[in-house]
Specification:
Blueprint: H1 20-25, E1 35-37, E2 50-51, E3 66-67, E4 73-75, H2 76-79
Amino acid sequence: FNDFSYEHLDVQDDFPRSSVLSILRDMDSDGEAELINTMEFLEKGDRYTNWWDKNGNDIVDGNREYSQIDHVLLSQGLAKHVSK
């Protein structure tokens, strides 16, 4: 799926268009996320997974061309081993 995160806004402050990421993270529907979004380990300025060259000049023209649409989710056990 391609969507944004409620919990960890990307470099452009994009908001999700659906609840899919939240639903996936809360696997047992108890209101607590069982899966950790790896974006929480990154500074906001580094939260992007996509570059769209809007004007086709093959040059990065600032943060407006970056967005975070892909996510890596980890179990809490694996997330404990991630260093920032």
